Amino acid sequence: MKMYIIVKDNIPDKLVPVITAHASLSCYKKFQENDNMIKWINGIFKKVVCLANEIEFDKLKEEIDFVVLTESSLENKEVCLAFCPREEYSKKFKFLKMWTPQNI
């Protein structure tokens, strides 16, 4: 069981740690009564941070049980999606690239 956090690939690396921290907390707050969230938070609460281009990001918004985050320093643009933890995700998630810092 894990929480996927998806960050747009054009977001500056220096912002990603704070954005993903906010995403994790925001997702928890929204879904804290969800059975999967309860199971996840009482376990080892794995998180996976991945990148998505604009097209992938929009396609992922067709999924269920997620929160969208915006960033005030980027003109309140959508920057991140955080998905309520679950055992299985759709195939789309398997093809996403994991985030690693590039230019910090």
Could you please describe the fold and organization of this structure?
- The longest helix has 16 residues, at 16-31.
- The protein is α+β, with helices and mostly antiparallel strands and 104 residues long.
- The protein has 3 helices and 5 strands; from the N terminus they run E-H-H-E-H-E-E-E.
- It has one domain: Bit1 (3-Layer(aba) Sandwich).
- A hairpin with a 5-residue loop joins strand 3 and strand 4.
- The protein has helices spanning 16-31, 35-41, 54-60, and strands spanning 2-8, 46-52, 66-71, 77-83, 97-98.
- The protein has a 5-stranded mixed beta sheet.
- InterPro entries: Pep_tRNA_hydro_II_dom_sf.
List the helices and strands and how they pair.
Blueprint: E1 2-8, H1 16-31, H2 35-41, E2 46-52, H3 54-60, E3 66-71, E4 77-83, E5 97-98
Parallel strand pairs: 1-2
Antiparallel strand pairs: 1-4, 2-5, 3-4
CATH superfamily membership = Bit1
State the CATH class.
Alpha Beta
Q: What spatial form do the alpha-carbon principal axes imply?
A: globular
End-to-end separation in angstroms reads: 30 Å
Percent strand equals 25-35%
User: What does the average pLDDT come to?
Assistant: 96
Helix share bin: 25-40%
Low-pLDDT stretches: none
- CATH architecture identity: 3-Layer(aba) Sandwich
Helices, by number, come to 3
Query: What is the β-strand count?
Result: 5
Structural class: alpha+beta
CATH T-level topology: Bit1
Number of spatially distinct domains: 1
Main sheet characteristics: 5 strands, mixed
- Give helix and strand order, one letter per element, not per position: EHHEHEEE
Task: Please list the strands of the largest sheet in the order they lie side by side.
Answer: 3-4-1-2-5
Rg, rounded, reads 13 Å
